[in-house]
Amino acid sequence: MRVAYIQFHPTLNNPERNRSRLEQFLTAVTADLVVMPELANAGYNFSSMQEVFSTAEDAEKGATIAMWRDIARQKRMAVVGGFAERQGDTCYNSAALIDREGNVHIYRKLHLFGEESRWFSAGDEPPPVMTLAGAQVGVFICFDWAFPEMARILALKNAEIICHPSNVVTRFPPQAMVVRGVENRVFTITANRIGREEGAAGNLYFPGTSQVTTPDGEVPARAGETGEETAVVEIQLSRAHDKRLAGYTDLFASRVPEMYTDLADHTNS
Q1: What is the pLDDT of residues 33-89, one digit of tens each?
Q2: Residue 109 designated active-site
Q3: Which of 98, 103, 163, 230 is surrounded by the most beta carbons within 10 Å?
Q4: 85, 91, 142, 197: which one is catalytic?
């Protein structure tokens, strides 16, 4: 199976330009599954709710999802991408998972970071796993990486690949996603953006380093910090079925769930 990420520099509040750029990338890439960054249609560092409303799109009628669906069907290629979603007067930081037939599933980010909570409502459903290009694919968005429960839930739902659309502003997530892949014995694909944006959160720098990681902690592809680029990696899904660490102890068989009940019982104080 061939998987790919797209790393690019979206323009804040310019969905038409962003769609055009993404269409160029998607048309050029040859893969079974392609992952794009968080909020790829809109940019990130908003200054007002008016800006968010002007760029957010309806998941069923929006131009970005329509374009992604068309390309998915035409190229028989599954795509995962982040977008600003609007449903009535509510906006979400969302990801679309689109299969080769153009069927769409939406995940809304659960863990909002920094200024995001000013513009978006958090999702209220767990991260999904769906069949894309013959693989079991899960998704979470950017800051969700900091909560290992997210990756574990997806792995327990039999995800073989975790897609990670991102607009990360620190250098921690690439290292963390290597660990998420190892501790769950899955592949991960992080698609991050690049560039700088001035807005309510100040002058933000997005350090790229999109990557693909393996269940053994390898990083067969990692982008630089400043350039737009796409990488395609051939993976063997069977590697995600072997849950033994270093070929020995089965990580999932070694779990002791009855000792983890405090995770569910503990509430924020």
Answers
A1: 999 999 999 999 999 999 999 999 999 999 999 999 999 999 999 999 999 999 999
A2: yes
A3: 163
A4: 142
**What whole-number distance in Å separates Cα of residue 96 and Cα of residue 61?**
13
CA 267 to chain centre: 27
Three-point CA angle 13, 17, 23, nearest 5°: 130
How buried is 203 (Cβ within 10 angstroms: 0-12 exposed, 13-18 middle, 19+ buried)? exposed
Q: What is the pLDDT of residues 92-108, one digit of tens each?
A: 999 999 999 999 999 99
Asked if the structure places residue 200 within a domain, the reply is yes
Catalytic residue among 38, 51, 57, 197: 38
68 in a structural domain: yes
Residue 267: per-residue pLDDT: 63
The letter for the amino acid at 94 is S
Structure tokens given for 49: 């709710």
CATH number, domain with residue 47: 3.60.110.10
Whether residue 248 lies inside any domain: the answer is no
Residue ranges of the alpha helices (H) in 76-120?
Answer: 116-119
Say which of 51, 109, 116, 160 is annotated catalytic: 109
What Rg value do the Cα atoms of the chain yield, rounded? 18
Record the tokens describing residue 244, joined without a space.
Answer: 């033994």
Q: What global pTM score does this model have?
A: 0.97
Q: Would 255 be classed as within a structural domain?
A: no
The residue among 95, 87, 115 whose CA lies nearest residue 38 is 95
User: pLDDT digits over 206-230, tens only?
Assistant: 999 999 999 999 999 999 999 999 9
Annotated catalytic, 38? yes
Number of domains in the chain: 1
